[in-house]
């Protein structure tokens, strides 16, 4: 079977989600032609950019006002229709991909390979299990392969001025009686996005209060980094849950990860242990976080953090 890969683009009609470019890099490692599907409304800027992405041989575009704010239930018929002509269907393992691709896999009557971090061949992949403490080699014998890829495991593909051909497709039946778009509430911040930031400073239960979390914010602002948090800090109400790092939160792999007052539960470390440099600040010398940390500071964070903030230019 010829390898024909279809990548589903995640975007907001103007900007491409960074993990889509990483999914394209993963797709290029499968061998064969790589196509991208862009579904939206007035999304030509996204299509133009993706047509210049390295390895992309063709871009499919469905542009219609009914896809202004698409839901997974609305997108699935269009993806399914095109998936029948491809051997592989990929998306990044974001909320978007995790919501859409299982529906496509069900319609295709195949299993889904989730959270792939390495590609060994067109049907053999590596994915983490047991909160990232073990890696499983998975081989799929299905007629088609539907998979999500972990963005932190792949570099973004390059984008040039080259232009792959664009094919405009007709709108597929969009009848959706199970869900309705109501609105979007987004947190606006001048800080980098947590998932793609080069520097992440995360706070945990050790900060003891929402007010003390300001120490993390001050250090993040000085370093030009993003803010993260452990689940314990989120559950305690110190920050909103969109900042949670871990198995049930966001997976990050920045150049620098600073964990402040985080003990290092296995679920948290599953979301950050692939960071290039890990710094841990904790009063407990036996905290599990020190097992993965490159640098550790044992002591009272309320003494360490102000001094650290003062010393950062």
Automatic annotation (TrEMBL):
Stretches assigned to coiled coil: none
Residues that coordinate or bind FAD: 205, 230-231, 244-248, 261-268, 282
Keyword entries, A-Z: Electron transport, FAD, Flavoprotein, Transport
Presence of keyword RNA-binding: no
BP term (GO), one: fatty acid beta-oxidation using acyl-CoA dehydrogenase
Cofactor note: Binds 1 FAD per dimer.
Cofactor: FAD
CDD domains (alphabetical): ETF_alpha
Electron transport in keyword set: yes
MF annotations from Gene Ontology: electron transfer activity; flavin adenine dinucleotide binding
Electron transfer flavoprotein alpha/beta-subunit N-terminal domain segment(s): 5-185
Function: The electron transfer flavoprotein serves as a specific electron acceptor for other dehydrogenases. It transfers the electrons to the main respiratory chain via ETF-ubiquinone oxidoreductase (ETF dehydrogenase).
Family: Belongs to the ETF alpha-subunit/FixB family.
Name assigned to this protein: Electron transfer flavoprotein subunit alpha
């Amino acid at each position: 079977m010829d390898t024909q890969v279809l990548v589903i683009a995640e975007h907001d009609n103007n900007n491409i989600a960074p993990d889509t470019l990483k999914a394209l890099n993963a797709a290029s490692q499968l061998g064969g032609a790589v196509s991208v599907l862009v579904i939206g409304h007035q999304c030509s800027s996204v299509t133009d950019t993706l047509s210049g992405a390295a390895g992309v041989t063709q871009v499919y575009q469905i542009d219609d006002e009914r896809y202004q704010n698409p839901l997974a239930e609305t997108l699935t018929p269009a993806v399914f229709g095109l998936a029948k002509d491809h051997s592989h269907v990929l998306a990044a393992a974001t909320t978007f991909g995790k919501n859409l691709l299982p529906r496509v896999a069900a319609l295709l009557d195949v299993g889904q390979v989730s959270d792939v971090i390495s590609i060994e061949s067109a049907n053999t992949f590596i994915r983490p299990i047991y909160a990232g403490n073990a890696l499983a080699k998975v081989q799929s014998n299905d007629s088609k392969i539907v998979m999500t890829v972990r963005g932190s495991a792949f570099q973004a593909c390059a984008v040039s001025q080259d232009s792959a051909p664009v094919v405009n497709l007709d709108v597929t039946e969009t009848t959706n009686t199970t869900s309705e778009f109501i609105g979007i509430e987004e947190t606006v911040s001048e800080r980098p996005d947590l998932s793609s930031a080069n520097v992440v400073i995360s706070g945990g239960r050790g900060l003891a209060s929402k007010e003390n979390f300001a120490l993390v914010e001050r250090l993040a602002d000085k370093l030009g980094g993003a803010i993260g948090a452990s689940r314990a800090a989120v559950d305690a109400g110190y920050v909103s849950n969109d900042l949670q790092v871990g198995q049930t939160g966001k997976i990050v792999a920045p150049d620098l990860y600073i964990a402040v007052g985080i003990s290092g539960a296995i679920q948290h470390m599953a979301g950050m242990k692939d960071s290039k440099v890990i710094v841990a600040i904790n009063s407990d010398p036996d905290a599990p976080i020190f097992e993965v940390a490159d640098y550790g500071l044992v002591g009272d964070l309320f003494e360490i953090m102000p001094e650290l903030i003062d010393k950062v230019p």
